[in-house]
Specification:
Its EC number is 3.2.2.-. The protein is an alpha+beta fold and 212 residues long. Helices cover 17% and strands 26% of the residues.
């Protein structure tokens, strides 16, 4: 399955849930950095008060959401950068924010990029993940995934299977609109220590993955 099909053939929340356990990698100077997606959030477009495209807002800053499914949308807040992928057909501005990965590839380089941060602090948040990749700009914004150094492995044989995927409210959403603030559009691996707000007492010995 190619990216354009994958990111358009289901609803955005279904795509977001399906991304859990898939490898996300970034290749820099010939080295593969990355890990397994353990947390991601769906943003449902013009009706979603938490989405950057709410009410049809469109600008250079959020243009990536309006592009065809499979287009990278990188946005910034202060000095931090965030990795999203657009979902659905062109001009239907929905997307998924990857919030955290369980790091596997390029660990030493990612630690250097995070100024020595290690363990769960390496990639347990969307800005931390991008820092670990060494990304400090929006350079890859508006690029299609297959035309970039980012790869999301869609081969089901390479996907880790969670014992349980939790659906919960998204992080940091304005409570002035309780309906959208409380919609369970954040998906994460139960018990995985790299999920952004996972408490130590909730860590699973297998990081929440099924063992076969």
């Amino acid at each position: 399955m190619d990216y354009s099909t994958y990111f358009t053939n289901h609803s955005t929340d279904e795509i977001t849930k399906d991304l859990i356990g898939r490898p996300l990698t970034y290749t820099y100077k010939g080295e593969k950095l990355g890990g397994y997606i353990v947390e991601a959030e769906a943003y449902m477009g013009k009706d979603d008060r938490a989405a950057h495209s709410y009410n049809g807002r469109r600008s250079q800053a959020n243009e990536g959401l309006y592009r065809a499914g499979g287009t990278i949308y990188i946005y910034s807040q202060r000095q931090y950068f965030f990795f999203d992928v657009s979902c659905q057909e062109e001009n239907e501005p929905q997307g998924v924010l990857v919030r955290a990965i369980e790091p596997v590839w390029g660990l030493e380089t990612m630690k250097k990029n995070r100024n020595g941060k290690d363990g769960v602090l390496l990639t347990n948040g969307p800005a931390k993940m991008m820092q670990a990749f060494g990304i400090h700009s929006r350079h890859w914004d508006l690029h299609f995934l297959s035309d970039s150094p980012f790869t999301i492995d869609l081969n089901d044989n390479h996907k880790k299977i969670a014992q349980e995927i939790i659906a919960a409210p998204r992080v940091g959403i304005n409570q002035s609109d309780p309906i959208w603030a409380n919609k369970p559009l954040r998906y994460y691996v139960a018990g995985n220590p790299y999920v952004s707000d996972m408490k130590k007492r909730s860590y699973d010995k297998n990081n929440g993955w099924k063992t076969f």
